[in-house]
Every structure is written in structure tokens, then in C-alpha cells.
């Protein structure tokens, strides 16, 4: 008599997943998957030992906490279960390569993957069928993503917000109801808008006691003054940096700006949405320039924060190389010396060595005496103001052309509507409908472009230079440039000069009229900062579009004697 064959009950684990909250509310909801999975295990005599639930996670990658926990358990020795049960293979993965990779990884430890709705055997034919179905799942996932993105881009083109949490300083409001779907736009949130403005103010002007602040200093200042984030938490460097670099605050939100790998998408795929502006474009641009100049990957940290006045600006006129600091007598004396000569000797360059203190005083004094005078500033900036006036004239002409285009389109629309009312034209005519739609689009776009151009013109108009501004700027700069031992002196000097060349018998100080105008227009008035000035300019542009300004040579006593000759 044969003994009965004993059967060992297999242990099973359920893996349940949905991609979105909307999906969880419909046919493939988590409770429905769990109910079907438990019934499947009971029907086949599996012992259900664990359930892994993944709400709101995509199956195109393995960055899923519960998925990783399940894989870790399934590949451990001994495995706590023998079978992983899923509703369909697409719940496990929507990438055919990754699906096969993890199936084989589990199989090496004796764990099988089975689907409730797609039962397969272990023979080669069923394996091939599973792989084909995985390919279709992957294709469907990519097609769905493409159609969703296309719909979201169209939604953005119409000026609506695509559902994500808006940046701090904004809030969403229902702008239109289309059936059961509410179309939303964003508006300025009065509760947090001042926080954003304060952050940009600290980055461009400081808090009144120091100069423009860096990201870390701003976060420290906000926390010290009891200003919290939108969620009531403390500020960190990342949150402040994100605000300072977000172009949405200038009134232009870029949807679909980056793709996979955080790489910037082509301009044709980016949709620009007009939103209420919180920050003036000029202030935003100045903050970006300053942050870029302070970036350690662009400027060496010792140049940004070091105590030396001319570090990063001073160059040898003979070889074009930078001049570095050399000390003598145990550090009691400091000199600027040609770095090429220091590395290669006189065969590389016969450049000069100049006492640091004397050269610093020479440059600062020459800027005080020759540049920072109202009459001199007016002379220097005349050509810049002339060019701005020309641009203003062109902008006004462009605005007039846009208004004319909008008016003509509106008049043509009225004539078409009159023809429809009088029975001359048929509203059901497809060509007539297309013509009306085209004219409406032309009119509306012309109006939007005109409004944008008017706003730009108003913004530039507020930066007009007056004699009082020149006098106040010159006086403030002469006072601040002489502060010893602090960042003000370096920052202010770099706003006035971007390149200093040392040659036999003279020093050439070179700057940009456009940069000087930006600093002057940034924050006029007595008792104010000199505006958004850079802390380092790593490379000097040798093109002549900066309109260099000449000053006559003036002899000053150095050892050896050096003359200062300024150009801008």
C-alpha cells in the first residue's frame, strides 16, 4: 500500500499598484485589485502571507518603495513567499526589459510572478507571449504619456494652470467651468507674495546693513526674523535658490521646460504662459547675473569672498595673464605680480610686481576723482541714453502697429457679423467659421503683444536718469568705495570697473557703459545701495560694443611710477 503524497501549500505575496488618485477611483482601484488577488489565492490554495500596496506610483521605473521592499524580500534567502501575484503584468512593470530583468531575478531565488488576468505557463511559448504583452504595455504607456502631455501643453497655451502646486506667492483660482472639469489659472497670493519680494530684495540690495546677500545668508535672515515657508516650516538653501531662479515671478511661466534627466527641452516644446508678475524683469536679471558670478563653478571662492580688492580684475598688460598675490617679509608686505612670470620666470613674461596697497589706492582714487563726478557720468552715459531713446521710439512704433493690426481685425470681424445678420453670409459655412476664428486669434494676439510691449516700455521708462540721481549715485559710491575690510568696497568697485591692466608707466581701468547704467538705474536715491553689482567677472569681453570711454592719462606716484588711464 502506497503512502499518501504530501503537498506543501505555496506562500503568496500580493503586489497592488495604481498610477494616480484618479485611477484609484475607477476599475483598477486598490480595493478591487486586493479583492481579486485574495480570491485568486484562495482558489489556487495559496497562503497569502504579505501584501505590498503602492498608491500613486508609475510602473515605468523601479523607484517605488513598496516594489523595492517586495524585491528585497523575494531575493532574500530563504524567501518569505514562493509566488508574487499581480492583477496584470502592467501593474508590475510597463517596461519589457525591466519586467524580464526582475522576473529572472526573482526566479533565481525560486519565486514566480503570476498575473490574475494574464495567466501564463512556464514553457517557451508562454514566455514569448508574456514578453509580447509587455511590449504592448510599454507602447501603451508611452502613447498615453504623449497624449497627456499634448493635452497639457494645449491647456497651457490657453493660459490655464496644469494642476501642480503653484510657486509660493501664487494660488490657483477657478477661471472657467467646462462641464465637470474646472479650468484653473493662478493669481498672486497676498499672504506670501511679500515673502517672495523680500527674498529678491535681499538678494539684490541687502537688508540695509549689508550688501546684497547670498542664498545661505537669505535663508538665515528669514529664519532669524520669523518668516516661514508656505507650510509654516523653516527656510533652507534649496527653497531660496528655487525662488531666486524661477522665471515665473517675472510674469512668464515656462511649461514643459525640462524633460527626462532634467535636460532643457527644445524651444518648440516649451509653452510660455503669461501669469501676474511679482518681480520686475530687470531685478530678476540682475539677481541671476550676481548668482552666476558667485557660482563656485564660474568664479573661484577666494575671488568672491576674499579680502583682496582687485582679485579677478587685475591683469598683466604684457602677456594678458592674471596677476596674483605675493607676500614678503613674513606676510607684512603684499604685492600684485604676474602669474605667468611667477610660474615660468622671465622667459614666460617680464611682467611687473606692484605693491598691493598702492595699486588699490590708485584704482579706487582714480575712480573717485575722475569717474564719480556727475558731469563725467552724464558725458559717459550720453550714448547709452541715446540708444535707449532709439529703442523706445522703435517700441512705440511697434505698439502702434500692433494696435492697428488689432483694430483692423476687429473691423473685419464686425463686417462679417453684419453680413451674417443681414443674411448675406451663412454662419454654417466652414470657411466662414475658419475666417472668424483666424481674425479673432489675430486680434487677441495683437492686443496681448501690445500690452506686453507697453509694460516693457513702462518698465524701461522708470529707469530714466536724472541729474539728482547722478549726484546721489556719485556721492554714495565715493563714500562706499572707501570702506575698509568689507565686501562693499569690492562689490562697488566691480560695478564700476571690470578689467584692470598693469603696464610699464600706466594702469588701464576698463569698464562697460551698459553695466554702469544698469547699476545706476537699479537703485537710485540717497542712502541706498548701489544696486545689483557683480562680485566677480571671470572673463573680459574684448569686443568694442561696450563703447569704451577714454580719460586722459594722469601721473600718480608708484614704485615704479604708474599712470592711471581709465576707459569705459
From TrEMBL:
Domain of life: Bacteria
Domain Resolvase/invertase-type recombinase catalytic: 11-159
A family per Pfam: Zn_ribbon_recom
InterPro entries with a match to the protein in the record: DNA_bind_recomb_sf, DNA_bind_recombinase_dom, Recombinase_CS, Resolv_N, Resolvase-like_N_sf, SSR_resolvase, Zn_ribbon_recom_dom
Official protein name in the record: Resolvase domain-containing protein
Entry-linked SMART domains: Resolvase
GO biological process, one term: DNA integration
Keyword DNA-binding (UniProt): yes
Gene3D superfamilies: Putative Large Serine Recombinase, Chain B, Domain 2 (3.90.1750.20), Resolvase, N-terminal catalytic domain (3.40.50.1390)
Domain Recombinase: 167-297
The entry's keywords: DNA integration, DNA recombination, DNA-binding
List of catalytic residues: 19 (o-(5'-phospho-dna)-serine intermediate)
GO MF, one annotated term: DNA binding
Amino acid at each position: 500500500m502506497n503512502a499518501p503524497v504530501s503537498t506543501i501549500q505555496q506562500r503568496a505575496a500580493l503586489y497592488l499598484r495604481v498610477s494616480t488618485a484618479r485611477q484609484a477611483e475607477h476599475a483598477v482601484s486598490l480595493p478591487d485589485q486586493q479583492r481579486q488577488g485574495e480570491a485568486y489565492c484562495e482558489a489556487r490554495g495559496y497562503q497569502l502571507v504579505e501584501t505590498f500596496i503602492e498608491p500613486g506610483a508609475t510602473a515605468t521605473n523601479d523607484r517605488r518603495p513598496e516594489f523595492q521592499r517586495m524585491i528585497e524580500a523575494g531575493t532574500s534567502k530563504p524567501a518569505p513567499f514562493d509566488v508574487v501575484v499581480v492583477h496584470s503584468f502592467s501593474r508590475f512593470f510597463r517596461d519589457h526589459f525591466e519586467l524580464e530583468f526582475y522576473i529572472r531575478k526573482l526566479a533565481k531565488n525560486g519565486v514566480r510572478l503570476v498575473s490574475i488576468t494574464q495567466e501564463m505557463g512556464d514553457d517557451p511559448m508562454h514566455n514569448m507571449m508574456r514578453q509580447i504583452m509587455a511590449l504592448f504595455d510599454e507602447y501603451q504607456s508611452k502613447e498615453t504619456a504623449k497624449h497627456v502631455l499634448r493635452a497639457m501643453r494645449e491647456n497651457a497655451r490657453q493660459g490655464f494652470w496644469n494642476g501642480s502646486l503653484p510657486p509660493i506667492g501664487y494660488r490657483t483660482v477657478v477661471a472657467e467651468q467646462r462641464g465637470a472639469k474646472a479650468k484653473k489659472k493662478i493669481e498672486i497670493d497676498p499672504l506670501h507674495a511679500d515673502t517672495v519680494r523680500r527674498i529678491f530684495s535681499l538678494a539684490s540690495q541687502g537688508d540695509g546693513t549689508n550688501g546684497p546677500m547670498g542664498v545661505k545668508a537669505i535663508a538665515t535672515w528669514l529664519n532669524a526674523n520669523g518668516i516661514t515657508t508656505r507650510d509654516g516650516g523653516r527656510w533652507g538653501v534649496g527653497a531660496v535658490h528655487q525662488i531666486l531662479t524661477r522665471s515665473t515671478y517675472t510674469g512668464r511661466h515656462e511649461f514643459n521646460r525640462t524633460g527626462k534627466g532634467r535636460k532643457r527641452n527644445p524651444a518648440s516644446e516649451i509653452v510660455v504662459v503669461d501669469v501676474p508678475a511679482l518681480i520686475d524683469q530687470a531685478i530678476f536679471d540682475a539677481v541671476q547675473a550676481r548668482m552666476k558670478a558667485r557660482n563656485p563653478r564660474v568664479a573661484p571662492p577666494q575671488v568672491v569672498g576674499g579680502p583682496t580688492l582687485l582679485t579677478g580684475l587685475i591683469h598683466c598688460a604684457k602677456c594678458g595673464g592674471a596677476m596674483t598675490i605675493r607676500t614678503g617679509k613674513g606676510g607684512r608686505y603684499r604685492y600684485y605680480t604676474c602669474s605667468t612670470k611667477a610660474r615660468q620666470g622671465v622667459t614666460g613674461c617680464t611682467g611687473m610686481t606692484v605693491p598691493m596697497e598702492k595699486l588699490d589706492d590708485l584704482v579706487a582714487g582714480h575712480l573717485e576723482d575722475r569717474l564719480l563726478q556727475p558731469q563725467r557720468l552724464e558725458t559717459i552715459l550720453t550714448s547709452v541714453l541715446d540708444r535707449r531713446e532709439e529703442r523706445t521710439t522703435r517700441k512705440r512704433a511697434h505698439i502702434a502697429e500692433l494696435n492697428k493690426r488689432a483694430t483692423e481685425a476687429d473691423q473685419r470681424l464686425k463686417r462679417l457679423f453684419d453680413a451674417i445678420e443681414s443674411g448675406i453670409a451663412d454662419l454654417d459655412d466652414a470657411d466662414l467659421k475658419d475666417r472668424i476664428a483666424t481674425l479673432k486669434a489675430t486680434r487677441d494676439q495683437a492686443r496681448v503683444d501690445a500690452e506686453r510691449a507697453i509694460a516693457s516700455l513702462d518698465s524701461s521708462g522708470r529707469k530714466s536718469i536724472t541729474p539728482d540721481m547722478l549726484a546721489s549715485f556719485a556721492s554714495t559710491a565715493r563714500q562706499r568705495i572707501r570702506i575698509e575690510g568689507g565686501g562693499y568696497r569690492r562689490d562697488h568697485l566691480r560695478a564700476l570697473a571690470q578689467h584692470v591692466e598693469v603696464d610699464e608707466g600706466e594702469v588701464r581701468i576698463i569698464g562697460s557703459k551698459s553695466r554702469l547704467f544698469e547699476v545706476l538705474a537699479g537703485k537710485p536715491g540717497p542712502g541706498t545701495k548701489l544696486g545689483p553689482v557683480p562680485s566677480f567677472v571671470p572673463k573680459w569681453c574684448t569686443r568694442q560694443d561696450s563703447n569704451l570711454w577714454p580719460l586722459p592719462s594722469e601721473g600718480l606716484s608708484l614704485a615704479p611710477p604708474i599712470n592711471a588711464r581709465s576707459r569705459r
